[in-house]
């Protein structure tokens, strides 16, 4: 059983890293959803994910720093309150009973899944504009909320923080992603400390986190290939729908919902229909975008050779 569990955790880490490496967000949301699906305790699931994220975010932050994608003022201004929020969220989740914690976490994950689904289906990848420096009065509450949701929901730092900063239009996209990824290391450490205080060593197995991390490391090069071949817009819709379906199932089977079979299958049918429509829309919009970009690229390609031939003729 132990070996089977470690294999499942490694597969969860692999799947989560494929998503995160392709979309730049949703590692925690995806991996926690998968851990809940295989029956892991909610607090232990979030603790395991954050323990693994200490390694993944450290490596990611170092890479972003090396390539100049980090604004250290943003890292400090959002990272410190984010750590406070994550510690508070971890201790809060640790004190909830399993019966209470599971639907609470699933509800948060369901909301984040709906965000990922709608965001990528209708808007594609987020874009930002350069502008004025980001202020503490914006970053501090954002960090507190994102950190708290990240710990209690097992993920959410990227889905909450990245779009909010991009929408402000005050930081270029590469530095938004780099700064969020770098500050997430502090959040992961604080959340892990909070779970250590709240849970002790009970329910948290370092080998689980190691398996999750190992799966993520294996998936990293695959994610790099995936992002080159699968449109992020389509992948985001697919992953968002999976998160919504999985967490809706958890909620519908909980005593808190008290849903019968007829209600469950009606909801499943509605989710499947909406998911299929979202995927179809994402594929259509991706093809339309490619069609709009193709004439411009063709025109540029056609213009350059002509210009080169003209220059060569003049030289001759």
Strand and helix map with partners:
Blueprint lengths: L1 H22 L3 H11 L4 H25 L5 H24 L2 H25 L13 H18 L3 H12 L4 H27 L6 H24 L2 H21 L8 H55 L1
Protein name: Probable membrane transporter protein
Main location: membrane
Keywords: Cell membrane, Membrane, Transmembrane, Transmembrane helix
Query: Using only CA atoms, what is the Rg?
Result: 21 Å
- Along the chain, the helix and strand elements come as HHHHHHHHHHH
Mass-distribution shape:
globular
Low-pLDDT parts are 304-316
Output mean pLDDT: 78
State the end-to-end distance: 78 Å
Strand content: under 5%
Helix/strand/pairing class, anyone? mainly alpha
Largest sheet: none
Q: In percent, how helical is the residue content?
A: over 70%
Number of helices: 11
Task: Count the domains.
Answer: 1
The number of distinct β-strands equals 0
Transmembrane segments: 74-92, 104-122, 142-166, 178-200, 206-227, 234-253, 265-283
Family: Belongs to the 4-toluene sulfonate uptake permease (TSUP) (TC 2.A.102) family.
Subcellular location: Cell membrane; Membrane
Region (Disordered): 289-316
